[in-house]
Amino acid sequence: MESLQSFYILVLLGNIFPSAVIAARGVVPLDSLTFDKVIRNHKVVLVKFDKQYAYGEKEDEFKKFAEQAATQSDLLVAEVGVSEYGEKENDDLRERFGVSKDDYPVFKLFKQGQKEAIDYTQSVTSEDLARFVRLESGLWLGKPNTLESFDKLVVEFLKADQDKYDDFIAKAEEAMNVVEEKDQLTAKMYVSTMKKIKEKGVEFVSSETARVNKLLNEKVSDAKKAMFKSRLDILASFTDYLKKDKDEL
């Protein structure tokens, strides 16, 4: 009901201000006049092509992602609202990039210096959008309970041959000793995960994720829930790279 009410409000605003674009927090609206200027002047731009005044679960997930991405200065999140009526605003952009109305919302990643955009083909969730941008751009978009320096170590660790694992575990332990006190437990989780992967293989990540998810669904204290969520965020840093590696095979 709330989503339906929001839709009617947006339609009403659209009738009163037909050329107005209501953008979500952290999202830059683009049109036929501004699109190329904006794209070529930013390192990485994620653009959502959608009907004007979009609403619903996918839009909510996009908004969550946009707020998370706002802390990354090299990433711009933008949207092209396409009108099917009247002057059909931005329909030329839809046609230019081969976007079908039946596929809304459509996401494309533009990287400075590259002519072709990268299409997003996964489900529309804030987590999957963040994973896509991280893997395709190399930019860090950390989850709430992760550390940028350790996420970078994770990538190096998983890229390395197994006989080099100890070197990266040692680097992680050194880094753990110099992080702020509030991040000590988080850093320790990274190190313990690396050690478990060395001992049990990369399969440990998926089995541990399943185990922690199961624990999270049980009756536990709020403190335990917070700890489990932190653990899942850190495991996701490992999963992201492993998923990309698998997709490229």
From TrEMBL:
One of its GO terms (cellular component) is endoplasmic reticulum lumen. It comes from the Eukaryota. CDD domains: ERp29c. One of its GO terms (biological process) is protein secretion. This is Endoplasmic reticulum resident 29-like.
